[in-house]
Design a protein that fits this description.
The complex is a heterodimer of chains A (about 180) and B (about 170). Chain A contains 6 helices and 3 strands, in the order H-H-H-H-E-H-E-E-H. With about 180 residues, chain A is mainly alpha-helical. Chain B folds into 2 domains: about 90 residues, no CATH class; about 60 residues, no CATH class. The two termini of chain B are about 40 Å apart. In chain B, about 30% of the residues are buried. Classes of the chains: A mainly alpha (about 180), B mainly alpha (about 170).
Chain lengths: ~180, ~170
């Protein structure tokens, strides 16, 4: 007989697969969405009750005391948040990584000459693609021909990352 | 779930972070990412070793160990995935930082391109990186994947196929 803690751990360890399946459903339903990252974020957020339902039914509901339920919920929330964050990052890498794009193209064609790669690696194009993404996810907006901050989530995250880098004596972007 | 298990996972993560901060502030290691992974592996390995040697093995202990380990590695994994942003300077972060600095007026596209585009950064550099890193071989002018890179991209290909999506735009 598996104890409730082991069931909780096992169900949470399986939650990335549930999250990926839920994301697959949402990606098909919201195929016309401008930002694939926004769909991935939506899947991570709305996937919590989907991952949480079996956790409650097969583990937490069988806890013996209110304290065990409380700590079980705290534990599940922490672990799921970490897993959802890691999942979003993996998806984002699959969407934005230039090296991964090159490797995937080589895999598709088995062998390829560098000039046959379809990725447009012109540095200006790379910045323009990112500007489009930032506008689509409403981190930036265009006002009278100037890009300005819209939602400040990414800007705050960028400031926090830069400050953390300074604290570690590892400035942002230094090779 | 007992509170002590949650607190043990958080404490272990705090130890990993403390170790990381101490080492990095003293002097950043040369092989940064490998050192970072080893820095976070060390407290978990010590915890696992101590638990194996110091405690009796039983179903209750195994579930505690698994619960602490899962919490520790999800938190550490989240940090390990974020850290490379510091090294690689994600263009998106650089863009929002540049725009934030120029608020309330903001920046025009031309100004952003002037600030952020590195004219030296070319496709050939990325391919050279892949060749130097042993992820790609070049034979008769044609690029081929190595076994390592084929294994590396496999989970990403599976994910894109599951999601019904083409290759990312890079």
């Amino acid at each position: 007989m598996i104890d409730t803690r082991m069931r909780l751990v096992a169900l949470l360890a399986l939650s990335p697969f549930a999250l990926a399946l839920w994301h697959a459903v949402l990606a098909r339903v919201l195929r016309s969405a401008k930002s694939p990252q926004a769909v991935a974020m939506l899947a991570s957020a709305t996937g919590a009750p989907i991952a949480g339902a079996p956790v409650w039914l097969f583990a937490l509901r069988h806890a013996l005391t209110g304290g065990q339920v409380f700590w079980g919920v705290v534990y599940a929330a922490l672990v799921y948040s970490g897993i959802a964050y890691c999942y979003f990052h993996l998806f984002n890498i699959s969407e934005t990584s230039r090296r991964l794009r090159i490797l995937s193209e080589i895999w598709l064609k088995k062998e390829i000459e560098p000039k046959q790669l379809s990725i447009n690696y012109h540095p200006e194009h790379q910045i323009k693609v990112r500007l489009e993404r930032l506008v689509a996810t409403r981190q930036l907006k265009v006002e009278e021909g100037f890009y300005v901050l819209d939602r400040t989530v990414l800007h705050r995250a960028a400031l926090a990352i830069a400050a953390w880098g300074d604290f570690l004596r590892r400035p942002l972007g230094e090779p | 779930m007992r509170g002590v298990v949650v607190l043990a996972g958080l404490l272990l993560f705090a130890i990993g972070m403390g170790l990381h901060v101490r080492i990095w502030r003293k002097g950043r290691p040369e092989r940064e990412l490998l050192s970072l992974v080893l820095t976070f592996f060390a407290p978990w390995a010590a915890y696992t070793f101590t638990a194996l040697v110091g405690m009796r093995l039983g179903p209750l202990w195994v579930s505690d160990w698994a619960a602490v380990s899962l919490l520790y590695w999800t938190l550490s994994g989240a940090y390990l995935q974020t850290y490379p942003v510091l090294q690689a300077a994600s263009p998106s972060l650089l863009i929002v930082l540049a725009v934030g600095k120029a608020m309330p007026r903001g920046l025009s596209e031309e100004e952003l391109l002037e600030t952020l585009v590195d004219p030296q950064s070319q496709m050939a550099d990325r391919i050279d990186d892949l060749l130097e890193g042993g992820l790609v071989t070049q034979d008769g002018g044609k690029l081929r994947l190595t076994k390592t890179s084929a294994a590396f991209i496999f989970p990403f290909r599976c994910l894109r196929a599951l999601l019904g999506m083409e290759l990312g735009r890079g």
